């Protein structure tokens, strides 16, 4: 009897913890993105002046990102837990795969930025004037602004589609997800702050899940 009670309690508490993790992911990723955006120029061909003036701020952002990534995995977990037996294999694969690809590219880009800072501290003049620096900077720009942000849009679209068909979240959130995904897909090259759309959408979904779980909890 006590084992059954423990299992029921774990089933109720896990979605709450994951929903809070989704909120944590949104806040941490938004903070990291803002710190990086105000510290590193958007131009992939800039000469690297930020390494001298803003590397400390960038390091803070890079140290936040791993914790945001861990929280994002918990967020994916609560979405799959909420779907349960209603999970469609096709959309679940797209949603799960795009989420993991987004996270992998986020970590890869962060590691490359961290490597640039480490090398700059040892050889500042050689790095800035090297072709390898310009190549790395352009690669980071492409990875984030072309590939990673598109995977975030695919994640929003697939999750919104699942929400429409299963009703695991309000329909208006799913429809808003389509609009935000279109902004990310079409406007990421023109609006430099479009990347904050993704954490804002995750925050909205997580808050809705958390509120719904609290309403269903027994007194």
Shape: elongated
**Overall number of domains:** 1
Order of helices and strands: HHHHHHHH
Number of DSSP helices? 8
The secondary-structure class comes to mainly alpha
Tell me the radius of gyration.
20 Å
What is the oligomer described by this structure? Answer: single chain
Low-confidence stretches: 5-12
End-to-end C-alpha gap: 21 Å
Q: What fraction strand? A: under 5%
Largest sheet, in brief, is: none
Mean pLDDT: 81
The residue fraction in helices comes out at: over 70%
Count the beta strands: 0
Task: Characterize the structure shown.
The chain is mostly helical. The protein has one domain (2-216). It contains eight helices and no strands. The protein has helices spanning 2-39, 50-53, 55-83, 89-122, 124-128, 131-166, 171-187, 197-216. Helix 6 (131-166) packs antiparallel against helix 7. The protein starts with a helix and ends with a helix. Mean pLDDT is 81; it is low at 5-12.
Relevant terms:
219 residues, mainly alpha, 8 helices, elongated
Question: Which SSEs are present, and which pair or pack?
Answer:
Blueprint: H1 2-39, H2 50-53, H3 55-83, H4 89-122, H5 124-128, H6 131-166, H7 171-187, H8 197-216
